[in-house]
């Protein structure tokens, strides 16, 4: 009985092995039916593979991240270094862009008044004990700068040259407490003396008791004999507050300068005023107010 | 009644292998749950059944779209090897095979099966990868078969139990 069963098993084994060899032979002979079976299997497997991809992709990404952690660290360090370099470059570019804007502004101003100027970069700022509120520029006597020359920026008057070396100059800012400047009111031409009070504060003392002064009036430099220390017509500031004291003979006022002394990058030293007094030509234009939209609504009576 | 159940089970494991497990990036080589599942199942079967299971398992394995070997190669190898397992290996072990024995036999058998597949495939003209890659595949598969045995051995035993009638159990 057992032998009979074993024989049947062996016969089955031989049959199955022969079938396998038959399949292999068919495949090796290039029967297209056999190759298309695998293609059909792929079609059946595709939905399962798509499903598994959506399941496995987060896990796979996590494992890839883990295996690439060491590389990622060095890559992060490299990118941080590159990022820092780009930031530095960006800061440099912004700085250059700002300086160019200031240079364009100051050249426009000088060109309008027909001043002959030398532009210079502000290389230092300080309050030395001898002079007070000052800046240092990178141009000196070799560029034709001498003491008592007017220094302007894109917005207006900055100060006056107080000290000159071959390649640098020290400029006394108009905010210095020792700074005194003869000014006139644009339009009315009333005259006064502007004094720096330090810390960006200025006071104006009018010369005539009859001078009329109001908030918003523009002040221009009156100019000096031989254009030294001040060329005429340079915008100085705007009246921000007028004092009305009964005991005073002349009016006093507070002035807001046009120049922001904390953001000076490029300034120009006026070497010569070619066309003389430009009058009120340099008065800064007031910003145009934005147009206001007016809507008219006509009420409709309810019926 | 058993044959459809076995076929469906084998198909399920094959799809799991092809769609999910083949996508997993194992550190060394790969892992074929399909092979170890068939081997572990065969170890619990009579020789004639083992042979049939080997044949059907091989036939299903030959459908793998990623295979470049001739169609029927896995059928040939698994039919012969399952018969060999059921008669020679299984006959020399205790009737109540222990899980440890099953693990060792399954892991070593999977390595032998891969070697046979590569060798016969090469004889039939299949292009082979470099020796280092082939060794890595075989060693990796054996290691993972050992490491993951606590998962797939109980699973195979459970599926096998479910395929038996109450009397056969």
Q: Overview of this structure, please?
A:
The complex is a heterodimer of chains A (303) and B (169). Chain A is an alpha+beta fold. Among the domains of chain A are: 30 residues; 177 residues, Thrombin, subunit H. Helices cover 36% and strands 25% of the residues of chain A. Chain A has a 6-stranded antiparallel beta barrel. Chain A is elongated. Chain A starts with a helix and ends in a 30-residue tail after the last strand. Chain B has 169 residues and is mostly helical. Chain B has one domain: Arp2/3 complex 21 kDa subunit ARPC3. Chain B contains 7 helices and no strands. Chain B is globular and about 50 Å long. Classes of the chains: A alpha+beta (303), B mainly alpha (169). At the A-B interface, helix 1 and helix 2 of A face helix 1, helix 3 and helix 4 of B.
Structure annotation, total helices of chain A? 3
Largest interface: A-B, 35 and 29 residues
Secondary-structure element series of chain B: HHHHHHH
What is the global morphology of chain B? globular
Helix content of chain B: over 70%
Task: Label this structure with key terms.
heterodimer; A: 303 residues; alpha+beta; Thrombin, subunit H; 6-stranded antiparallel barrel; 6-stranded antiparallel beta barrel; 3 helices; 12 strands; elongated; B: 169 residues; mainly alpha; Arp2/3 complex 21 kDa subunit ARPC3; 7 helices; globular
Reconstruct the topology from this structure.
The complex is a heterodimer of chains A (303) and B (169).
Chain A: H1 2-28, H2 32-67, H3 69-113, E1 115-126, E2 134-137, E3 150-152, E4 157-164, E5 169-173, E6 180-185, E7 191-196, E8 202-206, E9 218-221, E10 235-243, E11 252-257, E12 266-273
Antiparallel strand pairs in A: 1-2, 1-12, 2-5, 3-4, 3-12, 4-5, 6-7, 6-9, 7-8, 8-11, 9-10, 10-11
Chain B: H1 2-19, H2 33-42, H3 47-61, H4 73-92, H5 99-123, H6 131-147, H7 149-163
